Amino acid sequence: MNTAPLSRNGSFTLRVNVGEQCQYDCGYCRPGLVRAPTGAAKRVQPTEYARLARLFGSLGVKKVRFTGGEPLLRPDFREVVAAFHGALPGATLALTTNGQRLEALLDAPPPGLGAVTVHVDSLQPERYRRLMGEGDVRAVLASVVRARELGFATKLNVVVQRGLNDDELPDFLAWSRRADIEVRFIELMNTGSASEFTRAHFFSGAEVVSRLGATQLGRKSAADPACLFRAADGTVFGLIASDTAPFCADCARLRLSADGRLRGCLYEPEGAPLIGLLREGASDAMLGALMKRNVAAKQSHHPSLALPRGQFSMADLGG
After folding, report:
1. Do you find a cis peptide bond into 163, omega within 30 degrees of 0?
2. Topology of the domain covering 12-317
């Protein structure tokens, strides 16, 4: 894989981790937390997001996805969305959530939010609680359907885990057909913080394709992390095989952590300390120059490469 700075097409997706906290205890994520969650005072604040968003817009950010942890645990989540919507009125704003608080959000959705992706690892209520945590999967799925009915671009994410939920692949496809909502199956990722769990339960994308008798359709765009497939029963699903089939050469994602560090790759060890500099009085010109350098130097730190990378959990940096 090429380790040189990656070429860009001038359009980026910014993934914003608004907080690492989560109600759940998924085996590949929470037990692997390598640092304490960012405290409220150290998190990027809505006014700071607004200032950074304008600078990100000048770098070509056309889509912003809010992640966590669980974004809807943040009390000022609506203000965070409003900050980006005000600064980047033409950008697509999307949310990735476990869905536990989605119903309340849908009662009064923040202006500008147009897409919702919900993470569900089992359709079986008891197994859902065992794999993820306390909650009612039926209520979550009802909220996903309501989001689609309200006009949100809606998807369901499933992390496939050998011996734990891989037997539900056909069930997820059946739900997808009934709900008319795309399901995306995701490989476990080697983040270094839950290695034993990942080794024990890794289920490859190729195995998903084989299990479902699927044929490849391709990606909606080169930078889309999900490749589309058509199952033997005709259902179209997405597959994100970041571990076995990395798509680094076409990656157009930037990441902003809850404490305001900008990374060009999920596996990048440190990142540029934007909020630290902002709070020390850096001008927009100084911040913009740092962001531009970071983006220009964007390159893959995938585990298949012999490059420095730190341990993290998905809650630390966002999915």
Report:
1. no
2. TIM Barrel (3.20.20)
Return the structure tokens found at 115.
């897409």
Phi-psi region of 58 (alpha: psi -120 to 50; beta: other; left: phi over 0): alpha
pLDDT digits 0-9 by tens, 177-214: 999 999 999 999 887 778 889 899 999 999 999 999 99
Residues of the chain with pLDDT under 50: 1-7
pTM over 0.70: yes
DSSP-assigned beta bridge partners for residue 8: none
Q: Which residues contact 75 (CB under 8 A, 6 or more apart)?
A: none
d(CA 190, CA 193): 8
Nearest of 128, 204, 126, 97 to residue 160 by alpha carbon:
204
- Sequence ranges of the domains in the chain: 12-317
Do the Cβ atoms of 297 and 254 come closer than 8 Å? no
Nearest to 298 by CA among 3, 18, 79: 3
Instruction: Quote the pLDDT of residue 112.
Output: 97
Q: What is the pLDDT of residues 290-318, one digit of tens each?
A: 999 988 888 877 766 666 666 666 666 66
Q: Alpha-carbon dihedral of residues 272, 266, 15, 133, nearest 10 degrees? A: -130
C-alpha distances out from residue 64 to 13, 181, 219, Å? 6, 21, 20
Beta carbons within 8 Å of 244's beta carbon, 6+ residues apart: 187, 204, 205, 206
Tell me the C-alpha to C-alpha distance, in Å, between residue 174 and each of 182, 198, 235: 11, 27, 8
**DSSP H stretches of helix in the chain:** 46-58, 77-87, 102-107, 125-131, 137-149, 169-179, 195-201, 205-212, 274-279, 284-296, 314-317
Query: In the prediction, which pLDDT does 11 show?
Result: 85
pLDDT attached to residue 170: 98
Per-residue confidence (pLDDT) for residue 1, from 0 to 100: 36
